[in-house]
């Protein structure tokens, strides 16, 4: 099996690990879907990584002062970006769907790999990990019974059979719909879900309530003012990764 790999941002200590997932099949809403091999981030994207992007920490002070690259970087959100849940080692939350895709383009520019948001078949296949689901999620997920009404640091719980952390619970994660790839929904549930409702098949679509307090018209493409439960992780197709370079 191909090795997983770790990326480190140039001139930064921030790194993230990509886990190899072999090709297989998964049942989505009664339909068997083939999934090609891919790599998926070991954890949800953390503030450690997202800060470099949205705070422009990869730029010189002069570039930041000139508002360089403003069209493809988020403005600062209203209030504390992490809602006081925790920052270092915690999942980036409140990130709107379009922002997660622009972030992937930024990563692609850094590493010359076409990072993207997973489609729901890839995501659910990775979440199931070709293994029986646990009878209870207590040891594997941050949810109503195991949280303090907020996200926790990534890797707070056990990984699944493929070494992926927090696929279920903690922050729900953006995925692209198989029915319409232009539509994104969230998968896996989050810290406010109760145990019986959790699972790889759980979906929660975007609702305008996630941006109730956003005063902008139209609503921000970067932040969910009322969506602190929403995070994301990234994937890249295995045939687009050459680890020998």
Describe this structure in words.
The structure is a single chain. It contains four helices and ten strands; from the N terminus they run E-E-E-E-E-H-H-H-H-E-E-E-E-E. By secondary structure, the chain is an alpha+beta fold. It has a single domain (5-240), classed as paralog of FGE (formylglycine-generating enzyme). The strands form three sheets. A four-stranded antiparallel beta sheet has the order 1-2-5-10, with no helix packed on it. A four-stranded mixed beta sheet has the order 8-7-6-9, covered by helices on one side. A hairpin with a 6-residue loop joins strand 1 (5-8) and strand 2 (15-21). It starts with a strand and ends in an 8-residue tail after the last strand.
Distance from N terminus to C terminus (CA atoms, Å) equals: 18 Å
> What are the segments in which pLDDT stays under 50 over at least 5 consecutive residues?
none
Mean pLDDT: 95
Q: What's the number of domains? A: 1
Q: What's the CATH architecture name? A: Alpha-Beta Complex
Describe this structure in a few short sentences.
The protein is α+β, with helices and mostly antiparallel strands and 245 residues long. The chain has helices at 47-54, 61-65, 97-111, 120-128; strands at residues 5-8, 15-21, 24-28, 31-35, 38-41, 172-176, 184-187, 203-205, 230-231, 235-237.
Which short descriptors sum up this protein?
single chain; about 240 residues; alpha+beta; paralog of FGE (formylglycine-generating enzyme); four-stranded antiparallel sheet; four-stranded mixed sheet; about 15% helix; about 15% strand; globular
